[in-house]
Design brief:
Layout (H helix, E strand, L loop, with lengths): L1 E8 L12 H7 L9 H4 L15 H12 L2 H4 L3 E7 L3 E5 L9 H14 L1 E4 L2 E8 L2 H9 L3 E11 L6 E6 L13 E4 L7 H9 L3
Parallel strand pairs: 1-2, 1-7, 6-7, 6-8
Antiparallel strand pairs: 2-3, 3-5, 4-5
Length: 203
């Protein structure tokens, strides 16, 4: 079993201080919850802390598409978790089908942030809970090794049972203080989904 945590993912509702910005009023279309997206909200985000790395739900979407459609997940050998910058954790049922349309994915995430759970046929497909990154990792690791994927780490070697932490942000480094060893699959920084693909498609 491989457990992957997409950590500090830039997936969040529009912060309160931005909701009155004209660009937000145009994009909200009357919705109570709108997902922050730098493609549409870059003007309003100019004064936002860490604006250079926020508003990137597309990273989470691509990573989920790759992971949940993988043979590893279909064999029941993968658990995938999304930890966001605001210490919200998405617990994902392996049977969940990720919307291939980005717009549908965004709508579903907005609904999840409102309702805290997305269910179908008696199964909680997605569940949102407040939890720190290290608390999440310690709650799921058991006896497994934990590996933080980082381009400045030691050379990564595939391991059958482990927890893999992959950054879900476009720039910069982890904000959390992670007490785990770092590993790399390449000498330069890679996008999150490339790292995930290497891990889950390893022979």
């Amino acid at each position: 079993m491989i457990k992957i945590v997409l950590a500090e993912a830039e997936l969040e509702p529009v912060p309160r201080q931005l909701r009155r910005h004209p660009s937000m009023k145009r994009s909200s279309k009357g919705k109570d919850t709108v997902l922050l997206d730098s493609n549409y909200h870059h003007r309003a985000m100019r004064g936002l802390d860490d604006a250079y790395r926020r508003g990137r739900p597309d990273i989470t979407h691509i990573c989920l598409l790759n992971a949940m459609e993988s043979p590893l997940n279909k064999r029941g050998e993968l658990e995938f978790y999304v930890h966001t910058r605001n210490d919200e954790v998405i617990f994902i049922d392996p049977s969940w089908k990720v919307p291939k349309s980005y717009n549908r994915f965004v709508g579903l995430m907005e609904s999840l942030f409102e309702k805290r759970v997305i269910s179908a046929d008696g199964t909680d497909l997605l569940r949102l809970e407040h939890m720190g990154l290290v608390d999440l990792v310690e709650s799921i690791r058991g006896d497994m090794d934990v590996k933080v994927m980082h381009y400045e780490g030691s050379k990564y070697a595939h391991e059958q049972d482990c927890v893999i932490i992959v950054g879900g942000f476009p720039h910069g480094d982890f904000v959390s203080d992670l007490p785990y060893d770092k590993y790399t699959i390449y000498e330069e920084e890679l996008v999150a989904w490339a790292v995930i693909n290497t891990v889950i498609y390893h022979p």
